[in-house]
Specification:
alpha+beta, Outer membrane efflux proteins (OEP), 2 domains, 67% helix, elongated
Length: 430
């Protein structure tokens, strides 16, 4: 009785802490100025609306454990016999009144097994909570990367617009000096117009990415001004085998182990429920006719003739086997996804390094040579514009490849629960 009361108190306190934690999360402001990935992860784990709501489920599961461990209530009964009849039993002359108290005695350890089921269910919910946290963490990483990539695109779009303005000014001077046809000035204006449109578009995409990231911790508008990260800094590459070894330790597969324990507990409970309970009763009977009293005692038990809970037992066994089959199927799918992601991540890294270390220096060298030749009249504006466009395209491709690498890395970490090694994911008890 004391332990049950203590568990009830703990559940109430936990619920109070959940409300308090949600209130604190709502009051704590998001950082202004520069935002790091660690800042974004911390805000999302603390204030993400989906995670805040899911923490109540864990508290509810604790309350179910308390309920599962309670004994059946005793029953109080009153019975009246031999009244309002005829002859000697007319009126209440021969009335017999019985006051009884009965109690169901659960046999087969049903109460302990019910509690085991509730505890296994709570463990499963805790694992699923960690999986949801990993989902949020991966989404934060993806959106943070998109903000950083959008910032890089804005920077290069601004540089392209600046370069287009400088080129237009140079061509205008050449046209005024009768050293270039006016058609080149028109083409330069078109290039500038396209560069300005691209600058506006990239700025709009950056605003959308910032709002999307801030929404993960419930902010209507982003408080930060810039996401700080080096998009072209790559961590040391791990082997595919190293990632694969972490796969079965992820919450996605720990969930199957917890679910298997839940199914085993359900099977044991179903088998125990096939054993009927015993009901004991004790009462006092008063005879109105003689004004005497006597004790009444009895017991009852259901006869398991037709219903031996055989259907529930069979279903529990099937569910247990189904959990094993689902785990094997999920592992096969995850292994294939892991290999595909690893190959794509490796290719994205190679593509980024090739673009930055080989293609971009070559394109910049070609642009410098073309610019020099254009100034001396050896190249046309079309050739100069083409060289400028090639530099911009290589830079944009390098940004896209680097962003792809980090997104794929985030997917791999989500699949293998790698962030668990360096980021605390255990949420405070609600």
């Amino acid at each position: 009785m004391v332990s049950s009361l203590l568990r009830a108190v703990v559940a109430c306190v936990a619920l109070h802490l959940a409300v308090a934690a949600a209130a604190r999360a709502a009051e704590s402001p998001a950082p202004a100025g520069e935002l790091t990935l660690a800042d974004a992860v911390g805000l999302a784990l603390e204030r993400n609306p989906d995670l805040v709501a899911s923490r109540y489920e864990l508290t509810a599961s604790q309350a179910r454990i308390v309920q599962a461990g309670l004994r059946p209530n005793p029953e109080l009964g009153v019975e009246y016999e031999n009244f309002a009849g005829s002859g000697t039993v007319r009126s209440v002359d021969a009335l017999e009144t019985t006051l009884s108290l009965s109690q169901v005695i659960e046999l087969g350890g049903k109460r302990g097994l019910r509690r085991s089921v509730a505890e296994a269910d709570s463990d499963l919910i805790a694992i699923e909570q960690r999986a949801r946290q990993l989902d949020v963490l991966a989404e934060v990483t993806r959106r943070f990367i998109e903000v950083v990539a959008a910032q890089e695109r804005v920077r290069f779009a601004q540089e392209a617009a600046r370069l287009a303005r400088q080129t237009l000014e140079a061509i205008t001077r050449r046209v005024e000096a009768a050293r270039a046809p006016i058609a080149e000035q028109s083409r330069a204006r078109i290039v500038l117009t396209r560069a300005v449109i691209e600058e506006q578009q990239s700025a709009s995409e950056l605003r959308a990415a910032r709002y999307s990231l801030a929404a993960l911790w419930g902010d209507a508008e982003p408080a930060f001004s810039r996401a700080t990260a080096d998009l072209f800094r790559f961590e040391s590459a791990e082997s595919f085998q190293a990632f694969f070894q972490k796969l079965e330790r992820s919450p996605d597969f720990l969930r199957f182990a917890s679910e298997a324990r839940l199914r085993e507990a359900e099977l044991r409970l179903a088998q125990a429920q096939a054993r009927p309970n015993l009901t004991l009763g004790l009462g006092v009977r008063r005879f109105e006719e003689t004004n005497d009293t006597a004790l009444v005692a009895g017991f009852s038990m259901a006869l398991p003739v037709y219903d031996r809970n055989q259907g529930a037992i069979r279903e529990a066994r099937v569910r247990r086997a189904q959990t094993d089959a689902e785990r094997q199927a999920a592992l096969a799918r995850a292994r294939a996804s892991l290999f595909s992601l690893y190959q794509e991540m490796t290719a994205a890294r190679t593509r980024t390094e090739t673009l930055r270390d080989e293609a971009l220096p070559q394109a910049e060298t070609a642009l410098a040579q073309t610019q020099s030749g254009y100034d001396r009249g050896r190249f046309s504006f079309l050739e100069l514009a083409t060289a400028q466009q090639e530099v911009l395209e290589v830079r944009a491709a390098a940004i896209a490849a680097a962003a792809d690498y980090h997104r794929l890395r985030a997917e791999l970490e989500r699949l293998t629960s790698e962030p668990l090694s360096n980021i605390e994911l255990e949420a405070p008890l609600p």
